[in-house]
Amino acid sequence: MVDKNLSRIAALLRKAEGTDNEHEADAYLQAAQRLATLASVDLAVARAHTNAREQRVAPTQRTVEIGAAGKRGLRTYVQLFLAIGRANDLICDVARNSTRVFAYGFAADIDATEALYASLVVQMVRASDGFIKTGAHAAETVVRPVRVEVPTRRGRIVTTVVHERRPVHATTARINFQEAFAARIGQRLQEARTAAREEAVAADTAAGDRGTGVALALRDRELELTDHYSTHSNARGSWAGNRASAGYSEASRRAGDRAGRTARLGAEQALGGRRPALGT
Questions:
Q1: Which secondary structure element, helix H or strand E, spans residue 105, and what is its range?
Q2: By CB count within 10 A, which of 25, 194, 246, 261 is most buried?
Q3: Do 95 and 141 contact (CB within 8 A), yes or no?
Q4: Is-contact 225 91, C-beta < 8 A?
């Protein structure tokens, strides 16, 4: 059943990648996420009704390599993975240097997350590179503190801070673009997830006594994952990447948000398997 669902998701991803119509691409994206969510619903219901003597699907943990230490962009890559993971019911820990993510969840959900990430991270990097090459970011200026040496009337040299208006740096623009891209992708997937769950619960409620208890099964599933995470996670503190800042660029964020709205999915080869880390 899991293999069948992954094949269906892969077909939707191929359609999303093959169309030049952004509305069709978005529809395929939504359908892929709904199917991934509904697949988890099916697994949850099945587990709720499994005989105690049968083997139950249990939460697991997988290490996902994001990139080599020192590689640029790791923080925003992690932010994209976390946004996708939240929409697929994962709980994640992040290495301090942002080189890897420790994903906790059910195998089908981790597979779906890796498949979406494998496609979207490439699109994010390509889109941000394209934006930087246009030079549009340099048209926006920001006020920055600058240290300058100023001579005094007595001939001494003192260092003081002045505020100058300068063009947005390419690194600042890239980070802002990718952060906005990841946020928009997360919002789109969360909307698809919510719609799929509401659809499943409504259908189950309409079935009355013939229903399978989707809402209860989902709640049990969440509690089981939370317990698994509490038992197996060795994380201490919180990931500092969310608090890092490289300055603010409104134009870059708008461009990243637009790219996130029209991003298409692909890379069906990542379904059911791990993708190599970027730069390796």
A1: strand 100-105
A2: 25
A3: no
A4: yes
Tally of CA atoms within 13 A in the half-sphere of 131 that contains its CB: 31
Burial (CB count <10 Å: 0-12, 13-18, 19+), residue 55: exposed
CA distance 71 to 277: 11
DSSP 277: P
Rounded distance between C-alpha atoms, residue 87 and residue 108, angstroms? 13
Measured on CA atoms in the order 99, 262, 91, 60, is the torsion positive or negative? negative
Q: Which amino acid, one-letter code, is at 119?
A: S
Distance, first Cα to last Cα, the chain: 33
Read off the DSSP letter of residue 99.
S
**Radius of gyration of the CA atoms of the chain, in A:** 23
Count how many Cα atoms sit within 13 Å of the Cα of residue 69 in the half-sphere of its side chain. 3
- Are the CB atoms for 188 and 30 separated by under 8 Å? yes
Using the Cα atoms of residue 103, residue 108, residue 109 and residue 115 in order, give the sign of their dihedral: positive
pLDDT in tens, 141-174: 877 777 878 787 777 888 877 667 788 999 999 9
Cα–Cα distance measured from residue 27 to residue 2, given in angstroms and rounded to the nearest whole number: 22
Please calculate the CA angle 190-192-196 and round it to the nearest 5 degrees. Answer: 115
CB-based contact 83:183 (threshold 8 Å): yes
- Bridge partners for 91 per DSSP: 104
Q: What backbone phi and psi angles, to 5 degrees, belong to 225?
A: -65, -40
**pLDDT under 70: residue ranges of the chain:** 1-3, 6, 41-56, 162-163, 209-212, 242-246, 265-280
